[in-house]
Design a protein that fits this description.
Number of domains: 1
Strand order of the largest sheet: 2-1-4-3
Order of helices and strands: EEEE
Radius of gyration: 11 Å
Helix content: under 10%
Family: Belongs to the bacterial ribosomal protein bL33 family.
Protein name: Large ribosomal subunit protein bL33
CATH class: Mainly Beta
Structural class: mainly beta
Pfam family, one: Ribosomal_L33
Organism: Acholeplasma hippikon
CATH architecture: Single Sheet
GO cellular component, one term: cytoplasm
Oligomer: single chain
CATH topology: Rubrerythrin, domain 2
Largest sheet: 4 strands, antiparallel
CATH superfamily: Ribosomal protein L33
Distance between the termini: 18 Å
C-alpha cells in the first residue's frame, strides 16, 4: 500500500512537494534533489515525519 509523504527543503524548511511511496519496499526516508521555489535553486528535499 502506498502512503502519502511530504518533502521538505533542507535549507529553508518549506514544504514544497507531496508524493507517495511504498513503505513495504522502501523503509528508509526518501531524499531527492528538487527545485525549491522559495530558495530559487536545486536543494536536497527530505521526507518529513
Amino acid at each position: 500500500m502506498r502512503e502519502k509523504i511530504i518533502l521538505v527543503c533542507s535549507e529553508c524548511l518549506s514544504r514544497n512537494y507531496a508524493t507517495t511511496k511504498n513503505k513495504q519496499i522502501s523503509k528508509e526516508r526518501l531524499e531527492l534533489n528538487k527545485h525549491c521555489p522559495k530558495c530559487g535553486k536545486h536543494t536536497l528535499h527530505k521526507e518529513s515525519k
